[in-house]
Amino acid sequence: MRLRHVLTFFICACSTHVLTAQQKQILLENVKLIDYKNQSLNGLKHVLINGNTIQTISAAPIKTTGAEIVKIDAKGKTLLPGLIDAHVHLVFGALTMPQMMTNDLSEEFLVNKVGQSAQKMLMRGFTSVRDVGGPIFPLKAAIDKGKLIGPRIWPSGATVSQTAGHGDFRTPEEKSRRFFGIVSRAERYGATFIADGRDEVLTAVRENLRFGASQIKLMAGGGTSSAYDPVDVTQYTLDEMKAAVEAAEDWGTYVTVHAYTPRAIRRAVEAGVKCIEHGQLLDEETLQLLAEKNIWLSLQNLVEDTPDMDPQRRIKRKPVIEGQEKVWPLAKKHGVKLAWGTDFLFEPDLNELQNSFILRLQKWFTNAEIIKMVTQDNAELLQLAGLRSPYPGKLGVIEEGAMADMLLVNGDPLRDLALLADPDKNFLLIVKDGQIYKNSLQKR
């Protein structure tokens, strides 16, 4: 059964378990907000949420009337925007590689794995994510309709890859569709498009846009989790890459590319892409180019090793792991526009570490810079999708007119960023789209 059909079953099989029904107003009293300019918390504020929008922020008490108002006294706790992970794979991250390759991808199995993972991600405080590859559209639709619990999703849909590229997930016995006429298993499940030549790239990009992609993910270089492409190789010709960019820009959105090396990234820049995923092998000269061209670098601080990691993958990842220690400080030095994400693949247990990976940035950034990156800066990248953004409105900030995605933190994360690494204990309130999903404080 196709994964798209399985997840459609998922939509029908689940129901909403939001802590409170959609209320018209929420009044948060006595909260503290972050002042990024001074890297400090300001005085007590009162925040009124009307529907899914922040209506009023005031130092003076806000007077409200009506029975449908939820009032919460925060007692001086810190109010943050919802966390944002700019590089996730919700489906691939919920399954192991053997699970993905099994012939027994039953409905019940996928319902449990993918749905639970999305809900846990929201309950870790991630109210928005950018899914950069995979069969995500039905899951996103279910969350948006309130049939499942999970974060807002900016979907890329199937990755677009050349033959023998990072998105060519064929097993050894699967032959080329071009020559043998059989679509590969990964393509049938909506995980990837294997597209060669300008015409096929145009079709693959347009197919994703047809299903609702907010941005396009193109494989421009080798990878560590794929079997047939060395990390150092450059993928797609300039003409093929330009075709993807043109098709995306015709729809008012952008292409982001998977790439590590300067050669692959320079070709992508020449083609007109707006964002680079990874880039751990970048040199200083190419980082300067990204800064000059105002191109985003969506970077990660990947886990060095795990017990279940394939030995061959471990070897391929070695230069990437070594490179990430250099690229973060260099990118900051040259003023590159930075986004942060986790990129967990095929190791579901890693998802529980999502929050703690934020702390890895403390080697190079202040706590205020980190909080801004995982909220405001990541939100700016999401909105690069323009009119293809699935959620009109401003995210990543606590200000009047912004969307009501927020967390109430038990403490001061400017002094102790580790508060973010224990969401069960320290996130007292989780609000997404004006709805309360967690409330550990007594209402009055």
UniProtKB/TrEMBL annotation:
GO molecular function: hydrolase activity, acting on carbon-nitrogen (but not peptide) bonds
UniProt KW keywords: Hydrolase
Domain Amidohydrolase-related: 78-434
Record-given protein name: Hydrolase
Organism for this UniProt entry: Sphingobacterium athyrii
